[in-house]
Write a structure and sequence with these properties.
This protein has 246 residues and is an alpha+beta fold. It is built from six helices and eleven strands.
């Protein structure tokens, strides 16, 4: 079966002075992919870190023909380049970023992430999978100390346990088991500035009745803007992906 992959994307600084999120969509030789990074503003130079990592992913996307090998290579290469740049600039305590990435061949979707930028997988109007945040609230939810729904508003939601730019002995990123495109209708990659302001059920309701990723994204942005109005709104970014079966 043939699949048509379509994208829509947005990124905005919100109420902040600079935008430390970086997004990119790639298409080449029958492959489709995208990456979203959210630089850690509290560490400093988050915008530099997120841009550097996205550039590494883009460069490798056009070089590596096998999507199954791409994500581990890209995450490790991004970590190596980022830590080397930290040393060059004497900025070892700065330049940290999350990253979430999706790459698709003609049959499967490959997903990887580090930090609390998320990827949601949709099928038949429902969320069937999502990446698990590398954050304190997510760990509390996994141990049953809080409910999953409490993550969005938890007092420690900004404490991230794993990012690119932190020295590691073993890789901190996670790669999800490949998903057949036949079991996917849509994907959503988003930074915490986006997903904190829209409930999972609203993502699904906005998806209902449209095959256009731009329309789906616009519907979700209405919710995000409504809740963010009048607040110190964080940078927010999202990439909406639709999988159309031929």
């Amino acid at each position: 079966m043939e699949y048509l992959i379509t994208f829509a994307a947005c990124t905005d600084k919100g109420s902040r002075s600079i935008n430390e999120d970086t997004i990119r969509v790639f298409q080449h030789s029958g492959k489709n992919g995208c990456v979203l990074c959210d630089g850690l503003g509290g560490m400093g130079m988050g915008d530099t870190a997120s841009q550097l990592v996205v550039d590494v992913f883009q460069d490798l996307f056009y070089k590596e023909e096998n999507p199954a090998r791409f994500l581990p290579m890209a995450f490790q290469a991004a970590q190596d380049v980022l830590t080397a740049e930290q040393r060059r600039r004497h900025a070892e305590e700065k330049m940290k970023t999350t990253a979430v990435a999706l790459v698709m061949d003609k049959k499967k979707a490959y997903i990887g992430h580090i930090g609390d930028s998320r990827l949601y997988v949709f099928h038949d109007g429902k969320i069937v999978k999502r990446t698990l945040d590398h954050s304190v609230p997510q760990m509390l939810a996994l141990t049953g100390e809080i409910d999953e729904s409490e993550i969005r508003h938890h007092k420690n939601r900004s404490i991230i346990l794993k990012t690119l730019g932190i020295e590691w002995e073993t890789p901190m990123y996670e790669i999800m088991k490949p998903i057949p495109l036949s079991k996917c209708d849509a994907f959503l990659l988003c930074s915490d500035g986006f997903w904190e302001l829209i409930e999972d059920e609203e993502m699904c309701s906005c998806l209902t009745g449209t095959w256009d990723p731009g329309n789906w994204l616009d519907r979700m942005l209405e919710k995000v803007h409504e809740r963010g109005r009048g607040t110190n709104m964080d940078n927010y970014s999202a990439i909406a992906v639709r999988v159309l079966k031929g």
